Amino acid sequence: MKKLIIVLAIASSVLSYGQSTATDFTVTNCDGESYNLFQEPDAGNVVVIAWVMPCASCIADPVTAFSVTKEYDPEKVKFFIADDYADHECSVIQT
After folding, report:
1. Three-state SS at 49
2. Which of 15, 37, 57, 60 is deepest in the core (most CB within 10 A)?
3. Does the model's pTM come out above 0.85?
């Protein structure tokens, strides 16, 4: 009976695994350059995006994520910060 329960649990886990698909977008970054999200993975790169609320107490986790990405090849791992509602100027986000 224990083996059956274990097999059912594993089968349930495998069958319930889903795959989510990212949504492509094209935006203009703070340097005025047009950027398309899917170009990076298509080129074999990894993209890390941190959506932030622009407040001093909200930045710790994105800063940590940025620090971790710097441990990898900067040509392969791309880090981006995005304003949560896209309602702040670049200077606020960059600060």
Report:
1. strand
2. 37
3. no
